[in-house]
Amino acid sequence: xxxxxxxxxxxxxxxxxxxxxxxxxxxxxxxxxxxxxxxxxxxxxxxxxxxxxxxxxxxxxxxxxxxxxxxxxxxxxxxxxxxxxxxxxxxxxxxxxxxxxxxxxxxxxxxxxxxxxxxxxxxxxxxxxxxxxxxxxxxxxxxxxxxxxxxxxxxxxxxxxxxxxxxxxxxxxxxxxxxxxxxxxxxxxxxxxxxxxxxxxxxxxxxxxxxxxxxxxxxxxxxxxxxxxxxxxxxxxxxxxxxxxxxxxxxxxxxxxxxxxxxxxxxxxxxxxxxxxxxxxxxxxxxxxxxxxxxxxxxxxxxxxxxxxxxxxxxxxxxxxxxxxxxxxxxxxxxxxxxxxxxxxxxxxxxxxxxxxxxxxxxxxxxxxxxxxxxxxxxxxxxxxxxxxxxxxxxxxxx
Length: 399
Description:
Elements: H1 10-29, H2 45-55, H3 62-79, H4 83-99, H5 102-127, H6 133-213, H7 217-246, H8 263-274, E1 278-284, H9 294-314, E2 318-327, E3 331-339, H10 341-344, H11 357-368, E4 372-378, E5 383-391
Parallel strand pairs: 1-2
Antiparallel strand pairs: 2-3, 3-5, 4-5
Helix pairs in contact: 1-2, 1-4, 2-3, 2-4, 3-4, 4-5, 4-6, 5-6, 6-7, 6-9, 6-11, 8-9, 9-11
């Protein structure tokens, strides 16, 4: 395996330079040798230079650093044994455990312990003197102590890294939840604003256009009456919605929302807005069954409201049928059928433009409750049907 090209860290360069200076000082004054073997040979500088070179690789290539350092300390021990070389070898062992891969770290850690035990037992068996324990202590100081120190530091670093990762993941999840909550709230407000305002504004647009185009004082007066009624009701509902948004207690909001109990008044207003062009009938097959949960009750009311608004804007003259059917405690079915404008092609009356937001809002409301929704031509294509099945379950999401 070729020696990789590593750019040494500035701290590693500093360690290598300090070690080289210490080694040369020991050679100059002959006071740092561990074992005296006579005059220090210039050949012994090879071990010092090799150890300094190993220090340059301590972060970038700890495996190579350990291999070169081990060879250097063995060479140096045969040619004089500089203390600087021995001290740098302890740093090499430390770096191999701290910066090496998991496998190298475990191998060096176990090897240092095994070497310490082997040196201690071998010295006692050979010298048979308790003072031989000093050799075991020296071996532990050179290998086991820096290895275990590095293992402790590495463990703390990994724990800190894991803690940072968990904190980042927690912050990311919190941000995702915040964004999702804001998105859901914006969608809910958009649905409420559309359902509260759009139907009244649609009626106002249709009848104001009629009042401007029809040369009939009586028809114009009727149109203005309907315009005033819808503008007044729209303003009242807008004020109610603003009050809900500004309420300190969000739990009180659902109490102010309309439900199927107000269905008769809704149909009556739609019939007045239709001005005889549409005949609206309602059939409630729920009999004496309990009132559905508040979210289902509100969603059903809004679906009927938006369906009637669409009929006022787009349907050709004819009958609009509203049917409610409740399957005991299982589901509530809302079905609204109206004349299909695409089949009739009636262009003799003013129309209000549509953006499709109403169908989107109805579909979202039903999806939040876990129900099914469909809207499209029905029968032979001459009718338009809106069909929603809403499950009656506890803990239904607010629509």
